[in-house]
Amino acid sequence: MNNCLFEVVDQPIVIESIIKKVENRNAGAITTFIGTVREITGEKRTIYLEYQAYNQWLKKC
């Protein structure tokens, strides 16, 4: 198994491939979370999300 604890990607994440990376016969469970964004918070509407990552500073896995 790879020792990297995280990875920055620029493509959609396929959850099944992530699960395969951490599967272990000795593990009791694997937990994943897939979230969504609410459209309205209070009286404010969510128009867009913006993410930033600086991949050049990360160790390549």
UniProtKB/TrEMBL annotation:
Q: Name one Pfam family in it.
A: MoaE
Query: Organism's domain of life?
Result: Bacteria
Coiled coil (residue ranges): none
Instruction: List the SUPFAM superfamilies hit by this protein, alphabetically.
Output: Molybdopterin synthase subunit MoaE (SSF54690)
Q: What are the GO BP annotations of this UniProt entry?
A: Mo-molybdopterin cofactor biosynthetic process
InterPro entries in UniProt:
MoaE_sf, Mopterin_biosynth_MoaE
This protein's name: Molybdenum cofactor biosynthesis protein MoaE
